[in-house]
Amino acid sequence: MDPQILYEDMRDLDQFQENNPDIKLQISYNQKQNFWQGKFEFNNKNYFFRIFYNYLYPNLPPSLFCFKNERDNIVWINEEWYGHVFLDGHLCLFTRDSGESGWRQSFRLGEVLKSFKSLINQTDNKKLSFLHQSKKYSIGDYAISS
To answer: What Gene3D superfamilies does this protein map onto (predicted)?
Structure first.
């Protein structure tokens, strides 16, 4: 990874921690495979995650994968829903707009984590629906409608 991007990520993480004292974040960078991994403790629950950078970054955003435990290879968001969480447009939880033109080059690591915290808050005991590229995805029953 470009050292400048790595520096900006580290600065972003510091700012995220400062602005979110209710989060206990443990995170490290795997230079060989180009991803961040860590543990996100919030509301007395642990969320393990990896954030991968697309080879076209910054033109495409990073992808977030959340795991039920450190050794899991299934992706987990809440008790009701299992599946992949991509930020590359396949299944997108955190985009501000749809399509490639909607991605911002300043889509930073701290923004991914902030969106993840927001998602956890919204999915505690209810289904979360969101729109992406004219399709509606509903987490819980994974209903997809055009």
So the answer is: Ubiquitin Conjugating Enzyme
